[in-house]
Write a structure and sequence with these properties.
The chain has helices at about 15-30, 40-50, 65-75, 90-100, 115-130; strands at about 10-15, 35-40, 55-60, 60, 65, 80-85, 105-110. By secondary structure, it is α/β, with parallel strands linked by helices. It has one domain: Rossmann fold (3-Layer(aba) Sandwich). The strands form two sheets. It has a five-stranded parallel beta sheet with strand order 2-1-3-6-7, with helices on both faces. The chain has a two-stranded antiparallel sheet with strand order 4-5. The N and C termini lie far apart (about 30 Å).
Length: about 130
């Protein structure tokens, strides 16, 4: 049973199946709605066209495409969605580029469950302040 029901939907984009599973299970356990997941940028675009997730967890480096390019697409096509970059690629150039392109946060892999939930909680508060 979830600790608390959250009225937010989350979509996951990461090429690593174990990472997607970890994120999905953590979010479901915490009471977030799960909109789906994609392992590639092209699959993400296809699926995100059909749903308007509140929060998108997005990896940077994927064999199928660059998460920063997908971030640009998300910000132009789904401007209400908040994007949390979740990546092991955390050099200053990458982090600054992500933030400049509109990422709402950056979580560095590996991370603790607490760090993930704090980052999502911050986005949740920002979304609530918009309403």
């Amino acid at each position: 049973m979830p600790r608390q029901e959250h009225n937010l939907s989350v979509f996951i984009v990461d090429d690593n199946e174990m990472m997607r599973t970890l994120l999905r299970l953590t979010l479901l356990e915490e009471g977030y709605r799960y909109d789906g997941e994609a392992s590639s940028t092209s699959s993400a675009v296809e699926q995100l066209r059909r749903c308007e997730s509140d929060i998108i967890l997005l990896d940077v480096m994927m064999p199928s495409g660059n998460g920063l390019a997908l971030l640009e697409w998300i910000k132009s096509h789904l401007p209400a969605s908040m994007v949390l970059m979740v990546s092991g690629q955390h050099d200053h150039v990458t982090v600054n580029a992500a933030l400049k392109l509109g990422a709402n946060g950056f979580l560095i892999k590996p991370f603790s469950t607490q760090a993930l939930l704090e980052a999502i909680g911050k986005l949740e508060r920002q979304l609530a302040a918009r309403k």
